[in-house]
Amino acid sequence: MEKKPTINDVARLSGVSKRTVSRVINGATNVGAATRERIQKVIDELGFSPDKQARGLAASRSYLIGLIYDNPDALYIDQVQRGVLSVCSEKGYELVVHPCHYRSDDFISNCINFVRRSNIDGVIVLPPASEANELAKALQNHGINYVRMASVKIDEQENIVVSDDRAALSDMARYLVSLGHKDIAIISGPKHYYSTVERLEGITHTLAELGMTVPPERIIEGKNSYESGIECARTLLIQTPRPQVIVANNDEMAAGVLKVAHEMGIDVPGELSVAGFDDNLFASRVIPSLTTVQRPVVAMAGLAAKKIVALIENKPTEDVDDYIVKPHLIIRESTRKVTK
């Protein structure tokens, strides 16, 4: 069996000390460019991979990043993990995921215990758990590095990545009005979520600016689930007159609207336009394909990962000052211009 190369082999072949090799592995800046290049060349030639446990002990870090979430959307979680891992792999960190129930009584202690138990260097927190300011305060009090993903700036720039949902739904409102629609109904998410408020106000305020009011009976609160989309759609589609458009807070509920419209013999988009938010995988695969807002989740998660690594390593990195990501409108088959 061929012997695995060690840090001693790299040091010997590079003509430097083991400490210098360790500095290069850990990304220290106090090594000359020529020396760094020579060491990296030897590392590549040998196929040397540093032992993560030894590396962590040397740097007083575990090289583990935690991901805290309370979100049943598996597609969203998959996108987040891909975005985070694209940075973790490059920086030498591993990802540890931790599902939680952010409205439970032990939510805060559960998250803190996860970080302590797993020896995590820092955490990325996803909505809706990220909206809990009490968790952010607890993480600060325990000296734990964190970055929150959210739809509104609720923290310092280095601790937040924001999806500008309000601006995206403002774009949606203008688009629907440009099609000639004057009777728009909305299935919102749970109204205690920041994201729901941002999206709801984004569309209703813009419609008001354009001279259109959405009556209270045209706004129904859903639960961001397919089943609640079905329930809310049934309530809206038996109203007289029937709305011309239903905008759902996410694609899952919009898919529920499509199902109910099909069951009731309502043609989409001939008699009813439907729009969602997220641009999940199935948005382009349902029939008709769904007009929606594409939230760049992978890019957001990658930016969050860069920020958490910068906090852990206490050094600025490229793009770390950025914190706002703008979703954009994706127009597909489920909406169309009003015809007389």
Automatic annotation (TrEMBL):
Q: Where is the HTH lacI-type domain?
A: 5-59
> Molecular function (GO) terms listed?
DNA-binding transcription factor activity; transcription cis-regulatory region binding
Keywords from the UniProt entry: DNA-binding, Transcription, Transcription regulation
What domain of life is recorded for the organism?
Bacteria
Which Pfam family, giving just one, matches this sequence?
Peripla_BP_3
Per UniProt, residues of the HTH cro/C1-type domain are: 6-53
Q: List, alphabetically, the InterPro entries matched.
A: Cro/C1-type_HTH, HTH_LacI, LacI/GalR-like_sensor, Lambda_DNA-bd_dom_sf, Peripla_BP_I
Q: Does the keyword Transcription apply?
A: yes
Q: Mind telling me which SUPFAM superfamilies this protein's record contains?
A: lambda repressor-like DNA-binding domains, Periplasmic binding protein-like I
> PANTHER family this protein is in?
LACI-RELATED TRANSCRIPTIONAL REPRESSOR (PTHR30146), LACTOSE OPERON REPRESSOR (PTHR30146:SF153)
Q: What is this protein called?
A: LacI family transcriptional regulator
Q: Which organism is it from?
A: Marisediminitalea aggregata
